[in-house]
Amino acid sequence: MRRVLLPIALVAVALSPHGSRTVGSQSPERALFGEFPNRNSVSAEKGLPATWDADTGVNILWSQPAGSQSYAGPVVAGGRVYIGTNNEGNRNPEIKGDQGVVMAFDVKTGNFAWQMATPKLSSGRVNDWPQQGVCSTPFIEGDRLYYTSNQARIVALDVAGFANGNDGVTDEPRKSPIDGDVIWSYDLMAEADVFPHNLAASSPLVVDGVIYATTGNGVDEGHVNIPSPLAPSFVAIDAKTGKLLWESAEPGTKIIHGNWSNAAYGMVKGKPQVVFGGGDGWVYGFEPKTGKLIWKFNANPKDAVYRLGGSGTKNDIIATPVVHDDKVYIGVGQDPEHGEGVGNFWVIDASLTGDITDKAVVWRRGGDEFHRTISTVAIHDGIVYAADLSGFLYALDEKTGALYWKHDMLAAVWASPLVADGKIYLGDEDGDVSVLAVGKTRKLLAEMNMGSAVYATPYPKDGVLYLLARNRVFAIKEGAKSAAK
């Protein structure tokens, strides 16, 4: 079956050169894909397990069934774990058929708390591919959850569901204790004329009360025409009200397939930037508050050619950029259905302005050195950990791109590496999760099979590793022992 691609305030955020964040004491708890606004998934968590057994329950605190296909999350905040999936888990028998679903579970017990279920779009697979569910990893901040629904709406939910009454809008079709409570939603199709190709899947980023997201705008079912080239590919929305603050249609008529990447936010030479990977294969840096374009970069070589079905050498951007040390780290790729192919991984000097294609390359890996990717990198202690769709995990010198080592996962990789507690965690399409030691020498610590494909990136919190497989979510903790699944 075809799979659609995966695949951020009360106190200002300060990003350290290493991607960590410092917030004021009154800042609400938050959680997001990549853990930090710059999207560098390097955690300070300690005591995380290196081994576990999903079948016998060794080091498994709990596990719970999800839907039949799950790509979004997990993220953890406020005592709950949140994922995006489809309706095949059938948590509410009254909700029939194919739906996009956000689910919430208790962190300690795994008990199901509530869900937000949304019917598929009537236009069908061109805008909302069957059974893909919600592919947007939620952003949690305080008492609000933000995500992109399968109906191409940016949605704000109450993290308590209806347990604390009905807040925000009052026309939800279901209002039981296990249903999601909508605060507001912004319809990208109706209000911004967006034509999402296959699925809107952006994982929102919220910084200083502004939501940044890509829209999914793309080609029609014939993969040739762009029905809405003037519609935005990138938007900024007020997190409190749902009002559109600014938009950009930079990719315009040059969209290759769709806009499925995510925004990243970081400080460059002391000034903030929000960075998007575009569906035209360009990377864009904007002033966060105004939407003014600072720079753009063509992430395809000038002689690259796109061919329908993916046989060419020109790629779009599905991975999420990482902003680190005044630079942007990003790899290019295509829909995994197009298979393996030539890719390029770039490190870009983000302190320049204008079209910086010919002057901003710090280093690059391409050709046989790096294949197509939909994964986001993690940068730690001078090493870039990057995975490609062909199933290789690379450890690269942060300054030069020189290869320290390469690990063959032996299966396609959609997920992104997580660095935490001296370890690298990465899942693959065969359902294996590899755990390797950080550092300049390759050292495989363990490999565990989860019973189904692992398309999502693990999330660490309070000594527990939360991991989402295709049809099940796990809480993994050293010394825990649950019943066999």
Instruction: Specify the CATH class.
Output: Mainly Beta
What Rg is obtained from the alpha carbons, in whole angstroms?
A: 20 Å
In order across it, which strands form the biggest sheet?
3-10-11-12-13
| Largest sheet features | 5 strands, antiparallel
Q: Which architecture per CATH? A: 7 Propeller
Number of helices: 1
- Tell me the number of structural domains: 1
Number of strand segments: 37
What is the mean predicted local confidence, pLDDT?
93
Structural class: mainly beta
User: Beta-sheet strand percentage?
Assistant: 35-45%
Uncertain spans: 1-25
Query: How much helix is in the residues?
Result: under 10%
Question: Which fold does the CATH topology refer to?
Answer: Methylamine Dehydrogenase, Chain H
Through-space gap between termini: 26 Å
- Categorize the overall geometry: globular
Keywords:
40% strand, Methylamine Dehydrogenase, Chain H, disordered N terminus, 485 residues, 5-stranded antiparallel β-sheet
Structural description of this entry:
- With 485 residues, the protein is mostly beta strands.
- It contains 1 helix and 37 strands.
- It has one helix at residues 188-192, and strands at residues 14-15, 21-22, 30-31, 42-43, 58-65, 72-77, 80-86, 99-106, 112-119, 139-141, 144-148, 153-158, 181-187, 205-207, 210-214, 234-238, 244-248, 264-268, 271-277, 282-286, 293-298, 322-324, 327-331, 342-349, 354-355, 361-371, 378-380, 383-387, 392-397, 403-408, 418-420, 423-427, 432-437, 444-449, 459-461, 464-468, 472-481.
- Strands 3-10-11-12-13 form a 5-stranded antiparallel sheet. Strands 4-31-32-33-34 form a 5-stranded mixed sheet, with no helix packed on it.
- The protein starts with 13 loop residues before the first strand and ends with a strand.
